[in-house]
Amino acid sequence: MGSLSHELPPLQLKDLKVKIQDTCLVLPAQKTERRSMFLSNIDQVLNFSVETVHFFPQNKDFPPHVVAEKLRSALAEILVTYDYLAGRLKVSSSTGRLEIDCNGAGAVFVVASSECTLDEIGDLVYPNPAFQELIVKSFHGLLLDEDDHHHDQPLCILQVTSFKCGGFTMGLSTNHATFDGLSFKTFLDNLAALASDKPLAVIPCNDRHLLAARSPPRVTFDHPEMIKLNMEDSNSSAPIFDSSPEDLDFKIFRLTSKDIARLKEKAMASGGRTHDVRYITGFNVVTAHVWRCKALSLGHDRERESRMLYAVDIRPRLNPPLPASYSGNAVLSAYTTAKCKELEEGPFSKLVELVSEGAKRITDEYARSAIDWGEVYKGFPHGEFLVSSWWRLGFTKVEYPWGRPRYSCPVVYHRKDIILLFPDIDDDNGVNVLVSLPSKEMDKFQSLFHELLLEA
């Protein structure tokens, strides 16, 4: 049965005692063309860093110093194909749009060591603030933060950190404007191939004009999942969701593959004879369960409307479809809306169906309309909260010459308006749900999570 991974915060190492051994810029292995790279309206609103850490056990054939050299060489090679990763963001003087100056300035490569062992870290699934040490935040005195997104800010940082046990981590920070989750997985596959002295696993499609707005733009749908930007405060680095100054508790709720099967059975049983079993997927039932718990944890206003967002890959939904190898951001926010009384009283199958309708809504024309909406109005996704799923991205399936990662995870910061789904370390079909909420809301969420799961 689903459970908290920890009823209380676990004993964690708060300091991994990481020391930087070497920091350098890695330039493309061959000269690349100087150009300005167009960014789509989807890319434009994702100007922030995404950090991931990939944990590897000891491999006697590949000690950490060998791994570091192979990754440094592979990074130089991959910057030829992904030339924009060696570039810098800038605002076009002619259009006022954010774009990438593909100037070959380079990516940051760091070699570090920790005085700890991987086993001393404990549960890798539990987001440890100390994981921040596994991705460098400064380079030659320049702070690599989000206060300045232009000029000298590198778009890619790779850090190899060795541990006393012989294991190591690969920490990667990339600007979200460069990749979505699927294209980042392709990037990892390509990096691993080059580190193995093999050709690229996939030739990426780097043409962001494929998702350019139509001329003239045509907004043919209402888009309640978007909110217009206050142009008086307009800046290209405005957040999609506002950070909350509140003190937040955070907990991980683990759903096993058996729990998910039970949620599917619950959706089937409550749907009568006319329900469509095609929408009863693992993602839809987990998301419906989380939506119900999150919405009802906020209070007792049964007439309040709850709007949940989640990302949908539009590559196969366009006509013609985008190449599966498209390397930019090809995701839009699907939304679903219901009153709290519907979430509390309605059959579970109905909630699952509502979740599925969010994705079904995104046809070719709807996606083009959403992109054009961004051209006309300038704005950001807007909802009560966003479910961000790393569950099926497959980062732990990447085949490096030293083996697959033991675990891969985002370096998360706690936000009450974002709920993360990411894979379990022991159960391939299980999922971890990371929730950050004020204390009273968390108590209610936790109670609902278990009560409603027991009903399954």
Question: What can you tell me about this protein's structure?
Answer:
26% of the residues lie in helices and 25% in strands. By secondary structure, it is an alpha+beta fold. It folds into 2 domains: 3-206, Chloramphenicol acetyltransferase-like domain (Chloramphenicol Acetyltransferase, 2-Layer Sandwich), CATH 3.30.559; 226-454, Chloramphenicol acetyltransferase-like domain (Chloramphenicol Acetyltransferase), CATH 3.30.559.10. A hairpin with a 6-residue loop joins strand 5 and strand 6. Helix 5 crosses helix 6 (282-296) and helix 6 (282-296) crosses helix 8. This is Omega-hydroxypalmitate O-feruloyl transferase. Belongs to the plant acyltransferase family.
List keywords for this structure.
single chain, 456 residues, alpha+beta, Chloramphenicol Acetyltransferase, seven-stranded mixed β-sheet, 10 helices
Give the topology.
Blueprint: E1 3-4, E2 18-26, E3 35-38, H1 41-44, E4 49-56, H2 64-81, E5 88-91, E6 98-102, E7 107-114, H3 118-121, E8 138-139, E9 142-143, E10 156-162, E11 168-175, H4 181-195, E12 226-228, E13 249-255, H5 257-269, H6 282-296, E14 305-313, E15 331-339, H7 340-345, H8 348-360, H9 364-377, E16 379-381, E17 385-389, E18 407-410, E19 418-423, E20 431-437, H10 439-454
Parallel strand pairs: 7-10, 14-17, 17-19
Antiparallel strand pairs: 1-13, 2-7, 3-6, 4-11, 4-18, 5-6, 8-9, 10-11, 12-16, 13-20, 14-15, 19-20
